[in-house]
C-alpha cells in the first residue's frame, strides 16, 4: 500500500509543480489542478478497494496520515478557487474579504479544538474509532461530509485531518494576499539568508522529513513559506531544486554535513579555551 501511495503522491506533486510553472492564468491553473487531484484520488480509491490492508495499523496510518495529505490538496485548491472567483476589486474591500476568510478558519479551529489537539500532538489512543472504516462515534463531532462519502474509502475523521493540513495552507495563502495588499513599512526584524538557496531548501526538507513542526502534520509548502519569509529569500520552485539535490551522485546532504562539521569544530575550539 505504502509503495503505491508514494508513487501516486510523487506523480501528483510533480504534476502540480509543472502545471504551476507552465499554465498561464491562476483560475485556469486551479481548475486543472483540482481535476488532476480528483483523478489521483479515484486511482487511490480503486487500489484500496481492490487490495486489503496488511493489518489495522496500516489502515490507521493510511487514513490518518496518507490519504489526508492528498485530500488536503483538493480542499486547499478548491478553497483558493472560491476565494479568487469571489474576491472583490476594491482594495479596502479585498482586505475585509480576506480577513473574513481568515475568521472562517479560526471558527473551524475553535469548533474542532479537541481534535486539533489530538491530531497535532500525534495522540493515538482513539485512532481505531477515528481512522478505521466502519467505526464511528456520533459523539465525536462528525462532519456532515462523512455521512455523504463512500465508507469503503473513508473513516469518521480522515476528512477532518485533511482539513487541518489544508487550513494551514489556506491561512498562509490568505496572509500572503493581505501582505501583498498592504504597502506599509514594517518594523519587523528579519534575518537575511546569505547562504545558497539550495542549502536552505536542503535544510527545509530535512526539517520536514524529521517532522519537527506540529509533530509532522504540516505541509512542506508551509515550512518553505515561513522560513523563506523569515530569512527574506524567495525560494522559487523549491520542489525542482530538491529533485536536483536528490540526483547528486556524491554527498547528497552536503549542506547538512557542513553544518555538523562546523558545530563540531566550534565545540572543539570551545573545549580548548
Automatic annotation (TrEMBL):
Entry-linked Pfam families: RteC (PF09357)
Source organism superkingdom: Bacteria
Species, as recorded: Flavobacterium flavipigmentatum
InterPro entries found in the cross-reference section: Tet_reg_excision_RteC
Protein name (record): RteC domain-containing protein
Amino acid at each position: 500500500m505504502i509503495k503505491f501511495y508514494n508513487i501516486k503522491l510523487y506523480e501528483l506533486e510533480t504534476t502540480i509543480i509543472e502545471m504551476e510553472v507552465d499554465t498561464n492564468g491562476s483560475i485556469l491553473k486551479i481548475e486543472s489542478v483540482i481535476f488532476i487531484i480528483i483523478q489521483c484520488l479515484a486511482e487511490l480509491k480503486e487500489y484500496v478497494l481492490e487490495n486489503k490492508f496488511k493489518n489495522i495499523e496500516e489502515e490507521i496510518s493510511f487514513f490518518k496520515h496518507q490519504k489526508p495529505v492528498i485530500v488536503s490538496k483538493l480542499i486547499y485548491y478548491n478553497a483558493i478557487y472560491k476565494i479568487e472567483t469571489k474576491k472583490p476589486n476594491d482594495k479596502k474591500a479585498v482586505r475585509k474579504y480576506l480577513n473574513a476568510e481568515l475568521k472562517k478558519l479560526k471558527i473551524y479551529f475553535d469548533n474542532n479544538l479537541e481534535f486539533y489537539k489530538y491530531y497535532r500532538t500525534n495522540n493515538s489512543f482513539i485512532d481505531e474509532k477515528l481512522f478505521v472504516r466502519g467505526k464511528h462515534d456520533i459523539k465525536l463531532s462528525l462532519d456532515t461530509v462523512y455521512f455523504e462519502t463512500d465508507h469503503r474509502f473513508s473513516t469518521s475523521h480522515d476528512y477532518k485531518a485533511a482539513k487541518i493540513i489544508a487550513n494551514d495552507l489556506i491561512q498562509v495563502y490568505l496572509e500572503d494576499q493581505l501582505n501583498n495588499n498592504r504597502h506599509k513599512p514594517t518594523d519587523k526584524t528579519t534575518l537575511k539568508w546569505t547562504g545558497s538557496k539550495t542549502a536552505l531548501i536542503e535544510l527545509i526538507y530535512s526539517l520536514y522529513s524529521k517532522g519537527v513542526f506540529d509533530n509532522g502534520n504540516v505541509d512542506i509548502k508551509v515550512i518553505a513559506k515561513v522560513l523563506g519569509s523569515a530569512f527574506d529569500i524567495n525560494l522559487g520552485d523549491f520542489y525542482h531544486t530538491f529533485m536536483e539535490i536528490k540526483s547528486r551522485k556524491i554527498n547528497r546532504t552536503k549542506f547538512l554535513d557542513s553544518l555538523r562539521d562546523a558545530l563540531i569544530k566550534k565545540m572543539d575550539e570551545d573545549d580548548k579555551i
